[in-house]
Amino acid sequence: MASKPSIPKGTRDFSPVEVSKRNYIIAIMRTHFENYGYQPIETPSFENSDTLMGKYGEEGDRLIFKILNNGDYLDKVSSEELQTINYKQLTSKISEKALRYDLTVPFARYVVQHQSEIEFPFKRYQIQPVWRADRPQKGRFREFYQCDADVVGSTSLWQEVELVQLYDAVFAELGLYGVTIKINNRKILSGIAEVIGASDKLIDFTVALDKLDKIGEDGVKKEMLEKGISEEALVKVQPLFNFTGTIQEKIEKLSVLLSSSEEGIKGVEELQFICDNVSKLGLQKATLDLDVTLARGLNYYTGAIFEVAAPEGVAMGSIGGGGRYDDLTGIFGLKNMSGVGISFGLDRIYLVLDELGLFPETVTTATKVMFLNFGETQSFEVMQTIQKLRVANIKTEMYPDAAKIDKQFKYAERRGIPFVVKEISNGLFTLKNIISGEQVQVDFSTLSKTLK
Amino acid sequence: MASKPSIPKGTRDFSPVEVSKRNYIIAIMRTHFENYGYQPIETPSFENSDTLMGKYGEEGDRLIFKILNNGDYLDKVSSEELQTINYKQLTSKISEKALRYDLTVPFARYVVQHQSEIEFPFKRYQIQPVWRADRPQKGRFREFYQCDADVVGSTSLWQEVELVQLYDAVFAELGLYGVTIKINNRKILSGIAEVIGASDKLIDFTVALDKLDKIGEDGVKKEMLEKGISEEALVKVQPLFNFTGTIQEKIEKLSVLLSSSEEGIKGVEELQFICDNVSKLGLQKATLDLDVTLARGLNYYTGAIFEVAAPEGVAMGSIGGGGRYDDLTGIFGLKNMSGVGISFGLDRIYLVLDELGLFPETVTTATKVMFLNFGETQSFEVMQTIQKLRVANIKTEMYPDAAKIDKQFKYAERRGIPFVVKEISNGLFTLKNIISGEQVQVDFSTLSKTLK
């Protein structure tokens, strides 16, 4: 292999600094997931194809990575068959497994498969990579992590309240102030479609409405008309195009608009409960806002819909989202299991923290101190000292070879190691601070304290 | 889908308890990897096929999971071609990516690809899953984690000394006392083959010798004879079949046996340096032993070879292994980069800790306290209290629905939640210890302290 090695497009190598930053975010998520009673599970990277296929629509099926059967996978395909077969037919004969596309379907499969071992309501979190054969572009990868918290088996709206608090807790600890947690409800959207006489066009209606901040009022109206929604209906939804005010004001407007829709009123009541309690309990750093245009995966959600926007001024799409789906596990044969959950977009959160300089410096400080290598005669004494420092959990290295001192110093600098021990003499250590240039001679106890 | 869902053979779901136990082991590894100056990297789950194929021998190629190209992968294969093609030829046309088989080859690829950004010597650790289409059996999976620490770009034998210490540090903190870290050296094996006149049969010789504890002295001799090693040679290696004594005694015996082999003597010197320094620095809980039959992936290693055996009495194969390879990155065009590394067998370590009851109880205690749900009127007060406990990092839940009290208690018991708050009245909390049955009425400050 003469050419420089590379990795598949849409995938990434993560350097030590990048892994450390990612792990910093993940550790904070974990802490709060667990404070809120969510427990970790993990599922296999690949599932049986029939677990995944048909769960994400036609587009999703296309984007799922399929794994070739091992051994002679053509064994059972006759050469006559091969002449006329198309690739989709062939796939089902030569591939039985596929890489997971998200964490929700595997979670539903897990719940059904392990239902007898699980205590419901089951609050689980899962932080694992997923794979999609999407066209790679800025911020979109073929391998990326999802960080999900879901609860299944409870219809209590306190779950929604807690999920808003959970978002707030994680972003507050990350130092990411000013995120907006947008909330809506599928029943509101259904109710609107109902009162404007477009129930049969619910999807078209909401897909168009969802584009309001991208294509503006006129664009949305044009699209709705094209989809066969009447001029009369558009007049009725006019209030939604300038839907401002406090949450309470918005809820009151919706009450009026939806007064004739049973489902719509149910949605208003749910929103009222969630927003009231979030408001009374208080958020640390985030703002909750009601956004009637929010639809996300509408076919999926049946109640609350969430989406998190980065602080104003940061050009980044949503950094999280979620919602309630009344029949999470039905696809695998377990009926009447309501689920509600949220997801954190690790990659985007990383980009936002990086852009705003919010990663603490300590995150990327790996090794704290490096001992110069003066050759074999002194190395043993160095190693004895290092051993003691490591017991005290101080990240310590000796430069492994007796290279030129200059080279050793440069190595420490480039690695970002803040301290170097230059000399050991009569039990005293000459410790140099690489950043300030300051140099002191100290005994072991002071050395250890300085580095702690 | 009517049938109960399942997962592909050789893969596993991990329950909350299992994930917690695995994360406990991984966290301890991470701490020590970093104390020793190793930095984390991560590489993509799949690599370009040409990065992996041909690196693990024919058997390895067969066990690599290949990923089907997306879209119409048959587009460029004519139907005439399909009639005569065999599956291996077809694979190269319809699959360009494959799941990684280990962490070493991706690491080598990473080093070469990022050589301009890396400061050498480069000490990296990597904890990620790998995939092999092996026949699943007890303790062998198709998806499993590898936990590797390697340093590349230094020939210093202090690295080997440190890797022995690193094994010891991790197993000591895991409470796994009495592991044996076995060490050997490829140069010793080459030297022996040389002095018995079987240099051309080095592989056959070491493969047979490696089986000593499985098939015994007679079995090994029989296999060696079958492979064409002479009776005379067998007489010369006789001392190896009862190779007992202290490390120092063994090294002295090897010095005599290998006196005529330059390579053999070099191996003896290396062993001497490593064992001497490990011994002088001292190990916490593990024992170092010289095992001349140890070969492992011989074609790979060029210097030290390591393997870790579980404590006596635990029936488990090796729980770790590694060694030095002088030309780690040569396969990707970067010459003269010596590497040495070790791997921890997460799954087996897990099984050993489980068998010996070494997981601390706290590892599996998720939620610390659950508040009973008495219906909407009291829920808000409960949620206010819970919010304060969570800020203090106490893992807290409210049972989400106003179910029967009995049901709520059973849920807490089954979940292993140790405390339940039964009642809130005038700012006092009735706290019940589920295990002891003890019940106290306390104010918030005492509640918080008790749960901390």
UniProtKB/TrEMBL annotation, chains A, B:
SUPFAM superfamilies on file: Class II aaRS ABD-related, Class II aaRS and biotin synthetases
InterPro entries: aa-tRNA-synth_II, aa-tRNA-synth_II/BPL/LPL, Anticodon-bd, Anticodon-bd_dom_sf, His-tRNA-ligase, HisRS-like_core, HisRS/HisZ
EC number: 6.1.1.21
Predominant location: cytoplasm
A single MF term (Gene Ontology): ligase activity
Catalytic activity: tRNA(His) + L-histidine + ATP = L-histidyl-tRNA(His) + AMP + diphosphate + H(+)
CDD domains: HisRS-like_core (cd00773)
Coiled coil: none
Signal peptide: none
Alphabetical list of HAMAP family matching this protein: His_tRNA_synth
Homology family: Belongs to the class-II aminoacyl-tRNA synthetase family.
UniProt protein name: Histidine--tRNA ligase
Species of provenance: Flavobacterium cheonanense
Lineage: Bacteria, Pseudomonadati, Bacteroidota, Flavobacteriia, Flavobacteriales
Gene: hisS
